[in-house]
Amino acid sequence: MRRLPGIFLALCVAVALASCGVFGASSAAPTATVFVTVPEPEPTAATPNGSRAPAATTTAVVGPTIDAAGHGVTTWDSPSGNIVCAAFPNDGAPGFEVRCDVMQHTWTLPPKPASCEFDWGHGTFLTTKSGITCVSDAIAGSDVVGSDGTWWNGQPGSQVVTVEGRKAVALAYGASLKFGDILCTSATDGMHCTNTTTKAGFDISRAAYSLR
């Protein structure tokens, strides 16, 4: 059992690999499916030669990067409030752990592993590897203005949003938070976190998730 002082209570479950993930998340992704997404919408127009028109593209917004060096817990939301994330120094190992939970999603999970005794698949985690969470806690609520994890509120890239009646601190679209080797960037298509050393990471949104 691991206690995150003043904020979280988590229990670790080993799923397929030996180490534990964020706030009790399994450190291993299911072996059967590591990518789930939804089909692209059908184009609504055709080109003169009868072929389908390409889907519209968007340009990513590049914003400031907030470095969490010297801080413990960091918590944040997506601007929509549908994704809640937290990061903290990795117990007993160098580096950080990051976890993102999605409040509402439309993607389908792989079957729950028999070794997962808790809640399966509310989100993703990243250390040196990425995976799907199996946890007994929730991080929603740790994102409120004035909490220890929102120490970065007021810095460029932060914004305050109202989520289910609470004032939470969100990472603006295009802005990033840096936790040692891990970089998390907020975008209109979801939250993207990458370990720049191992190249592992995850991309998560209401519509899809992927593990790298």
Q: What share of the residues does DSSP label as strand, in percent?
A: 35-45%
Return the average pLDDT rounded to an integer: 77
Question: Any idea what the shape is?
Answer: globular
Please state how the strands of the largest beta sheet are arranged side by side: 3-16-15-14-13-12-4
How many β-strand stretches?
A: 16
Give the SSE order as H and E letters.
EEEEEEEEEEEEEEEE
Task: Give Rg in angstroms.
Answer: 18 Å
Number of domains: 1
What is the structural class? mainly beta
Distance N terminus to C terminus?
Answer: 28 Å
Keywords: Signal
Descriptors:
disordered N terminus; 0% helix; 16 strands; 212 residues; seven-stranded mixed β-sheet; single chain; five-stranded antiparallel β-sheet; mainly beta
What can you see in these coordinates?
- The protein has strands at 2-4, 8-10, 35-36, 65-67, 74-77, 83-89, 96-102, 119-126, 130-135, 158-163, 166-171, 176-179, 182-187, 190-195, 201-204, 209-211.
- The chain has one domain (2-30, 64-211).
- Strands 3-16-15-14-13-12-4 form a seven-stranded mixed beta sheet, with no helix packed on it. A five-stranded antiparallel beta sheet has the order 5-6-7-8-9, with no helix packed on it. Strands 1-2 form a two-stranded antiparallel sheet.
- By secondary structure, the protein is mainly beta.
- Keywords: Signal.
- Residues 1-24 form the signal peptide.
